[in-house]
Each structure stands twice: as structure tokens, then as C-alpha cells.
Amino acid sequence: MSDSPVTVNLSLMSHTNVGKTTLARTLLREDIGEVGDRPHVTEIAESHVLIETPEGDKLVLWDTPGFGDSARLLKRLKQTGNPLGWFLGQLWDRLTDRPFWCSQQAMRNARDASDVVLYVVNAGEHPDSAGYVDAELQILGWIGKPIVLLLNQLGPPREAAPVQADVAQWQAHVSTFPLVRTVLPFDAFARCWVQEGTLLAHVQRVLPQPLQPGFERIREAWRQRNLKVFRESMQVIANQLAAVAVDVETVAERNVQEKARAWLGSVATGVERPDAELARAQSSLASRLDEQIRSATEQLVRLHGLKGGAAREVLQQMGHEFAVERPADADKAGVLGGLLSGALGGLAADLAVGGLSFGAGALIGGVLGLFGGRSLAKAYNVARGAEKGSVRWSREFLWERVIAALVRYLAVAHFGRGRGEFVAGAIPSHWQSVVTQALQPHRELIEAAWTAARNGASREQVAEALLPVLTRSAQDVLARLYPDSSSVFG
Predict the structure, then answer these.
(1) At the fourth CATH level, which superfamily is domain 7-191?
(2) Of 62, 27, 54, which is closest to residue 217 (Cα–Cα)?
């Protein structure tokens, strides 16, 4: 029995226009069906293979039509066994009330094909005000299959306490329906991939024993597929940060005449004349950093099965909507927002995530020539020599880039396929603090990587040193955000 391949069928069901197809797209990582802000967009039950193991096991997801008039539907289903009920349900309703007929088809499909029902509700509604839920759970009771209730439309990712409060509220409401085995938060727009493992674990608990060995193989295949994406994502981030760490720009030292003119100008005006060669070097570094951020984000987007254009949206989302907890200079923040529509949008978004209070305003000032050279010390490290000097990123600035890179990863990892095109939402402020806490124990190792970069280590060597630190830190972040999913990393 344990060697025989199995097929496990999940039926995705809900009231009409609650987000079933949106959730199906997120799980499948591809655009299927039609989604829209209107009832009964899905008219027939459609099956899709979520994953298949090398042994031949299959996990199949059925996207079904939404419920309509629940009370009337339950009455019609109970009439199915008599000739009049069969005529009304199979012929009359199909011709005169197609949405109602679609609801009946969904019920028959779930009864005949499914092993577990995934019942999706709108978490934005209070259970007591969603009157259709009780009627639909009675219908699902007529089917007789175990139910996993999923809370959709939760909004942007939040800290654990308010989410668990929502779960507890719905658990209390459905406690009188024994077929509802568990309630899980699972937002189609903002779920994280580790939550998929939690969902599959709960599905396995309610499956009959003959399906257990095969479903264990399905879960492991799902886990390994997601871990592959995770490992490749960490490599992308390590490569990007290593490229920033080793980047350096040489600057020619001003000759005696130029120094004299600059000194006389500062004496006459009281303002130090900016060093054009230094400004050029700084702008070159900033432009390369922007390209590295954009390229890394594009790679993360592709790895997570998202549309290519989503990288731009993720960067804009982070730049416009990240909640910066530390105080920021209003003028510098305004310049940062303006950069998003210009050539350095990726860099601006990255700086927004890293925080504005250290380095970002100085960097932007150097790029746009708005704040003068004296404010650049925090973001840049300038080393002068007899004839030539060098400009590279400072250690503190590089530390902020590590934080920003992991927050950017979280933004992509929580990016559900939604309605096909990306819908920007706020990135929660608690992500930054969680990432910082996870990175702090490894700061010495990260500093050692910066030292190696300054001492001539190659980009590949620096990336190799950063990769295990980033991997452990990202695992820690995900475990802190989703404690019940820590087993996904073994």
C-alpha cells in the first residue's frame, strides 16, 4: 500500500466572489481560470495538478463555482434523489438559472471527487455578519468530507497576535460544525510559501489512512520544490550584496592648482567647493548599485513564478509604502519618493527599506547634487592616496543593504498572483525589526565578509561567505513570522 501512487483531490469552495480562483492561481503559480469583481466568474469545476511526485502521486486542485442562494441550494440538493428534483436540478435550472445550476455542480463535484474541502471565507467580514457561512457549512455537511477553513482577504501581513485573534474568532463560530477540522490564515494576495507547508500538513491529518504514505511523498516533493527556490533566492541576494561590497571607484587627486582654486573659493564664499571627480565616482557607484538591485529583484520574481513586470511593482511598493519607524528628514524623504519615477527607482526603494536616518539622504544628495559633498561621509568611504584615491560603500551602509535585501525577499515571497496583475499593498513595519533581530547574532561574520572585500577578495568569495549567514537568518525570520512552519527547513 505504501508503494502505490495515490491521487488526492482538494475542492476549493466558497461563497461567490470571495477569491477561490485567485487562491488557485497563487497555489499553482500560474494564471488559470478567470478572475473578476463580479459573482460566478467560475462556471464549471476545473481540475489542475498542483504537484506530481516521481512515484506518480498527484495532488489535484478543483476550482469550483461559488455558492449563490445557499438555503435554496440545500433544498434542491436534498431533492436530488427523486425524479422531480433531478429534472429541476439537471435541466430546468441549467436553462433558467445558470448560476444556481453552477452551485449545484460544485456540490456534486465535491461529493464525488474530493478527499478534502478547502472552504474559503472573507476574513474581512465578522463571522456573525456573514450569514451565508452557516448555510454553506450545512451544505458541506451534506457532502460529508472533512473541511479546512481558510481565511482569505486578511490584508497585508500582520504580526501573529491579531492574526491568531481572527483565527480564534472563526474557530469559535464554526465549532458546532464537526466537519470543520481546522481554521488557517491563508491570504491569496499575501500568503508566504512556508504557509503552504502548514496547509498540506493539516490536509494530511484529515486524510484516510490508505492515502497517508502517498501524501507524505507529495508533501516532501512540495517542500523540496519550495526549498530549491529558497536556496536559489539566497544565492541571488548573496551575489548582489557581494557585488556591492567589492565595488570600488578610483578618483584622481586634484592637482595643486585645483586645490588652490577650491581653497580660495571656500575662503571667499564660506562654502566648500564640491569635488567633481569625487561626485562622479559616487554617482557611478550609485548607478551600479541601482542596477544590481533591479537585477536581483527581477531574478527573485522569476524564481517565485511571478510575472516579470512584478519586480518594478515590488520596488515601487517598497519605496512608497514601507513604514519607516525612525524619524527622517522631510526633504530627503521627498527626494526619495521622486527618485522612484526616475532612473534610480530600485536604489530608492532599497534605501527606503534600509531606513532613511543613516546614509540614504547623504547618498541621494550625492547623486542629485542637492546636499553637497560634506554629507557623504556616512554612505561612502573615501580613501585618499598620493595621486589616486578610491570610493567604496561604508560598512554601516552595507549593513543596511543586508537588511533591505532580506526585506525585499520577504516582499517577493509574500507576493500572491492576485488578480493576475500585481496589486500593491503596504509592507509591514515589523518585518524590518524581525530581520534586524535575526541578522544581529551574525554581524561579526558579515563584518568579516566586508573586511575580506576590502582586502581584495573576489565577488564569488564574498558571496560564498555571506550565503550561509543569509540562509540561516532568512530561516530564522520565517520561523519568527510563522512559528508553526519552522519544520519546513527540517
Answers:
(1) P-loop containing nucleotide triphosphate hydrolases (3.40.50.300)
(2) 54
